[in-house]
Amino acid sequence: MTSSFNVHDAAGYEQLMGRWSSRLAPLFIDFAGLADGEKVLDVGCGTGSLTFALAETADLAEIAAVDYSPVFVEAAARRNSDRRIKIRQADACALPFDDGTFDRALALLVLHFVPEAGRAVAEMCRVARPGGVVAAAVWDHFGGMPGMRMMVDTVAALSEGGRQLRERYCWQPMMQPGEMKRTFVEQGLSGVEETQLMIRMDYQSFDDYWAPVAAGEGPLGKYVINLDASERARVDAAVRDAYQAGRADGPRSFANIAWACRGAVP
C-alpha cells in the first residue's frame, strides 16, 4: 500500500496539519469511546496526535501505533516516553498483528490517503476482538474545509494543473457523506454510526497558513514545489490575496469538519 500523502519533514507536517489533528483527537476519542485497561491500535499515527491523546485520556494497558511513513514513525518515537506505547512502521492494509488483538482499532485522518481504504478497514476489523470497536475520521475536503478549499480553488483558477489538483483533493476516498458508513457496513461491522466533528483552524498570519505548503508538505505542497519560478510566484501571490481578502495580513480562523464513523466487531 502506498500513501497519497506527501511528507518531507515532521515539523512541517505539524504546522500544516498536526496541530489541528491534536485539536480533533479528543473529539474523536469521545466519539470512539475508551476505557481503562484496554489495548488500542492507532492506525496511521503520524507524529502522534491521537497516540498521545489516548495515553492521556485513560489508563490503557497498551497502545500500538503504526504509520507507513518512516519520517512520522521516527518523529513519534522521539516524542514517546510512555512504556505503554509501541510505535512501528507498518502498512494499514497489512497490519502486523494477530486476529482479535485489540479492544479498539482507530484511525484519525488516515483513510482518505489510503488508495485501498476498504482493505484498511477490513484489516482494522481483523485485529479488533469480537465486540471491539473500529472507528475512523477523515476531513470533508469537498464541503467542510473552507480554509484549504480556498487554496485549491485559487490554484484551480490559474491553470489546468490546478484544476486537476482540485479534483484529486475533493474526491479522495471516504470523504463523501455516508461513504465511510457504507464501507463499515460492508466489512460486517454492527451498530455503525456516522457523525460530524468540528474544530477551528486559527492562523496568526499568511505565512503561518502558507509556509508548510510552500515548503512542499501535503498534496498541495507537492504541487507547488514542482512549479517553475514564475508560476510559483503567481500562485503565492494569488493565495495571499485570497487569504487577506482585501484586508491587512493577520489572524484568520476557519471552521473545519471531519466525518467520523464507528462500529462494533460481531
Automatic annotation (TrEMBL):
Q: Which GO terms describe its molecular function?
A: S-adenosylmethionine-dependent methyltransferase activity
Give the matching SUPFAM superfamilies.
S-adenosyl-L-methionine-dependent methyltransferases (SSF53335)
Q: Which CDD domains match?
A: AdoMet_MTases
Official protein name in the record: Small Molecule Metabolism
PANTHER family in the record, alphabetically? Answer: 2-METHOXY-6-POLYPRENYL-1,4-BENZOQUINOL METHYLASE, MITOCHONDRIAL, METHYLTRANSFERASE
Query: What keywords are annotated for this sequence in UniProt?
Result: Plasmid
Q: One Pfam annotation, family name?
A: Methyltransf_11
Q: Which organism is it from?
A: Sinorhizobium sojae CCBAU 05684
Residue span(s) of domain Methyltransferase type: 41-135
* Lineage, uppermost ranks: Bacteria, Pseudomonadati, Pseudomonadota, Alphaproteobacteria, Hyphomicrobiales
Specify whether Hydrolase is a keyword of the entry: no
Tell me which domain of life the UniProt entry assigns to the organism this sequence originates from: Bacteria
